[in-house]
């Protein structure tokens, strides 16, 4: 929320009241700032588009129009059909039904290449880059007008000029494999600009960015729109949508449920449109300070999968009943921290102490830590959190099957296992379960409930929750958050990692910021300065950040 | 424009598992009938003979079961390893080593023990021989992550040459000392002969069926089986739950090899009666992989599958006696097995006509 306001401020100060100027620019039909006149005031028009996959309607008779010079936001929950709609416009999917026209001309793209030729390009959530190629080579890749001989120098200069003209910060000669996620995204955008794309679609572009990177990106998008291009941005972050867009189209369950001018919209009604009911973050409870000690982590060190040092001396205390949020851009040691505490990854130094028993668990196997009351919700639900091919009952006893009543001696007590599943399915409202069905067939939210149900049913003293709401729709997000809050209330100390700063602020009692494998800041959640956290997340050191 | 896409069935309907193999056999029979007719043979006559030789009489049935016995054991061996995502294709060599060790023990013990303990020891020796031989590939796999496909495959040749050396290349204890003109394997002492149930059918079949049922039950109802299933399904989840994957890999390699080794033991003490290379080295380990694949690596399903495969192959000599040449016989058998194996594809996947698309990415569809 705070970040978003921030962007709005910046947008105002940098490009003379960009947000307000947007709609006017759009109505001025021939705003040919990019050098060519437009044939129609509408950059793209989609009429009654339907698309189904395997009998399920992804989008159902959706109308959508896009003006030149505007940033048009597509808002909706996961699975609302945003990506499908955009993929139709970008030529990736052919609609089952409906008409698409670009700049007044009816089109029928049979591949993204056709769409590119018509000036429509999309940046997907998963980047499509060749890691061993340089930035410039990636930009030139697939360009039908490229000469047979690759003239590296000239190409790099050209890409550098292009980047500069849009205020995009990249080094054309660097290999993509060495770039950060944010930088790679810029390469994807440059690729499209290089192909002279005038309708640019971005699928949740800020999901992987730091607040500062997001600000830069949104500013670039605004600039491109002001120059006459049309931008579609898919997002479910209300704040950033409000700060950057001119109009907002809301999708729900594959249908268009609203289209509003951003200037006249308010967050509450947008949220209601998006999820079909009032949505609110759970109230953060104000628990007292008299908590029992839970977990002490001192100078913890560990390596990442590729053998580099991922944790370089992390220390913190976590009390029972407290939620300690870990802020940071993914890849700064969160995963290693969670795995090392859980016992899945070996620590190379430091110690992890279960404070209540004052027991050093640093070198104990997973099973013993579980018995001591340590639970872990991993970030990779399907690959790690559950055994996807086994039924829900087996998954719910994944860690407790060794103990009675689930096993007697070497035998498994199938009846108790099934009864346990029955109980937890009801208690955690896990839907879509059929007996014997592999758990992988559940939806993401229900799968996460299975993981949470299992971890919490052991009455843990400490719970490490790694991105527990990632990729879930808002309904499931709310369920997961309230489960976490309830569990904290019941006395479990929770270490919560999340990429959603708003979520961390809403749930946590305290926050630490992880950067480069170190704790670079610690805050009380009541008195945080979001700008400060953002700077710390982006790697500015503490002095610089507070200065 | 429309084209055809392949998608995974969420859950294959239950009747499929029965209907698909039946339809596959019928299709195969139809196609093979065309070839037979082209060659001037009466397909009806051929199929009637096949059915009769496999299941037409008491003798036919017991003979099919005799052939099925080693296939059950090598099929179980492959199914068990494959379930844990261990590609043990060394059942062939492990069977040989089971035969070498069990018959070696028999030659060493001679007639010194009564039949019951003698046969018990023989079976244990076969299992241990095959199991330890499998560990030659299994331990490197568990400890260093070596490729078990290459190792198990290569160890088949080592075992084959060991057998040839024992019988043809040396005057070892395994070579029959009586006939010196043409070398052959030595006969086991009489106490080791497996008791017969009916005609030529001996208790080896009980060993196979027992192993299948116990294995199937153990995977479903024991803690060991639970851990096995988790590790076989998802290494990530297993590591997360703190299971000892390395130990399970070693145990499974041993058990898989032991089952193949048992096949070797029940062969030398059963229908062969001797350590006879010509009877041992007929590809039973590899056929076991086929059996396991058709049974979709379900230990219980291995039992009827092995009987079916044996039934298809048992009729060879009889068909040749009615004038169908050996290559045509192999072709008919091959067509049937190929169709049944391929039919499994349709239980797991289905075809669907879809609109042509560029890069396929069905995120929304997967969410269903």
Helix content of chain A: 25-40%
Q: Architecture of the domain at 293-389 and 450-546 in chain A in CATH?
A: 3-Layer(aba) Sandwich
Task: Determine the CATH topology of the largest domain in chain B.
Answer: ABC transporter involved in vitamin B12 uptake, BtuC
Task: Output the strand order for the largest sheet of chain B.
Answer: 1-4
Largest sheet of chain B: 2 strands, antiparallel
In CATH's first tier, which class of the domain at 293-389 and 450-546 in chain A applies?
Alpha Beta
| Average pLDDT over all residues of chain B | 89
Cα separation of the termini of chain B = 25 Å
Could you explain the architecture of this structure?
The complex is a heterodimer of chains A (547) and B (368). Among the domains of chain A are: 2-110 and 237-275, P-loop containing nucleotide triphosphate hydrolases (Rossmann fold), CATH 3.40.50.300; 293-389 and 450-546, Rossmann fold (3-Layer(aba) Sandwich), CATH 3.40.50.300. In chain A, helix 17 (474-489) links the parallel strand 19 and strand 20. Chain A has 547 residues and is of the alpha/beta class. Mean pLDDT of chain A is 83; it is low at 1-34 and 542-547. Chain A is built from 20 helices and 22 strands. In chain A, helix 16 (444-457) runs parallel beside helix 17. In chain A, the strands form five sheets. Chain A has a six-stranded mixed beta sheet, with helices on both faces. A six-stranded mixed beta sheet of chain A has the order 16-19-20-13-21-22, with helices on both faces. A four-stranded antiparallel beta sheet of chain A has the order 2-1-4-5, with helices on one face. The two termini of chain A are 23 Å apart. Chain B is built from 16 helices and four strands. Residues 355-368 of chain B have low confidence and may be disordered. The relative contact order of chain B is 0.21. Chain B has two domains: 1-41 and 326-357, no CATH class; 70-323, ABC transporter involved in vitamin B12 uptake, BtuC (Orthogonal Bundle), CATH 1.10.3470. In chain B, strands 1-4 form a two-stranded antiparallel ribbon. Chain B has a two-stranded antiparallel ribbon with strand order 2-3. The two termini of chain B are 25 Å apart. Chain B has 368 residues and is mostly helical. Chain B has helices at residues 16-38, 43-55, 58-83, 91-109, 115-144, 148-169, 204-221, 223-233, 235-240, 245-268, 277-280, 284-294, 299-313, 316-321, 326-348, 363-366; strands at 2-8, 196-198, 201-202, 349-355. The chains are: A alpha/beta (547), B mainly alpha (368). Chains A and B meet through helix 3, helix 12, helix 13 and strand 18 of A and helix 8, helix 9 and helix 16 of B.
